[in-house]
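Reviewer 2 asked us to include a model.

Predict the structure of this chain.
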Amino acid sequence: MRSSRLLSILLLLQTRRQLTARELANELEVSLRTIYRDVEALAAAGVPVYADQGRTGGYRLVEGYRTRLTGLTEQEAAALFLVGMPGPAAALGLTAETSAAELKLLAALAPDQRDRAGRLKNRFHLDLPAWYQDAENSPHLSAVADAVLHDRRIKVLYRRWEAPREVERVLEPYGLVLKNGAWYVVAATGNGMRTYRVASILELTPTDEEFERPADFDLPRFWQDRLADFDQTRFTAEAVVRVSAGLASRMHDVSFPLLVKAVAATEPADDGTVTVTVPIESIGNAAAAFCRFGNSLEVLDPPELRAELAKLGRTLIGLYES
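Predicted model (C-alpha cells):
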C-alpha cells in the first residue's frame, strides 16, 4: 500500500507540478503526518522533491525531472477504455482503477501534451443515456463484468418479455455492450450466442468454471451484425402515410428517425404534403406511433392500420367525451 501511495504522490507532482501537503492528503485520503513521512521517504530514495515556502508554496519536483515508473496494473489497463466515462466506470466497479490509469497516462505525456489532454477532458463530455431516460439500474453488472474479464460461467435467473417470464440460464459471457444507458451481455449458451439485458437479470450466481472463448470472436462486429439482424426481423410490414406540409417542415423536431429519413428523401407535392413509405413492426405498434401526430399525418395503407387508428380514436372519444 505504501509503495503504491509513494508512486501516486510522485505521479501527482509530475502531472500537476505543485501541490500542498493538504491537497495531497485529500487526494490520497490519508493524514498530513502520512504525507510528510512519504515525502521524506521519496527524498531519501533520491527523488528530487522539495517544498516551496509561503502562502502559495507546496511540494514540487526539480524542473525537468520525469519518472518512467508509469506501469499499469492489469485492472488499470482493463479500465483504459473507460477513461473519460466516469458513469460506466463506476457501474463496472472500476472507478479507482480508471482514475489511476488516467493519472499514469497523464504522467507519461510531455507538459504541452498534458495541457492539451486536460483541455479536451474539460471541453468534451459523453452523456450516454437518451433524453428523458435515466441509466438503468443493473445491480449485477459488476459481477457480470468480473465474469467477462476472467472467462467464467455464471448462472442467472432472467426475466424476459415472453412466457415463461422467468428462466434460468447458464451463460458464458463474452462481452458487455453499453447502448443508450442500458448494458447488454453477449454470451454463449447451449442454444448458441444470445444477448441479455443486464438489468433483467434477477439473480446471479458466480462459478469457478472457466470457459474458452473463440480466438476470432470480435465483439464490435458481432454487435453490429446482431443489430442488422434485429432490424430485419422486427419490421414485418410497411405503411404508406401522407405527411402534412406543416409537419413536413418541422421534421427536425420529430423523434421518429424512419419517418424523418423517408420525408427528407422525398419531394413534396404541390400542396407541400409528402407521401412516404415507412417500415413498421406491427399494426398495434404503428398505430401507437402514428396517432401522436393527430391529423398532421394520414395513413393511406394498409387498411388494417387505418382501422386500428379509427378504433383507437373511438376509444379515446368514449373515454374523454363525457
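The first helix runs from residue 2 to 16. The CA atoms of residues 137 and 306 lie 39 Å apart. We have added this to the supplementary material.
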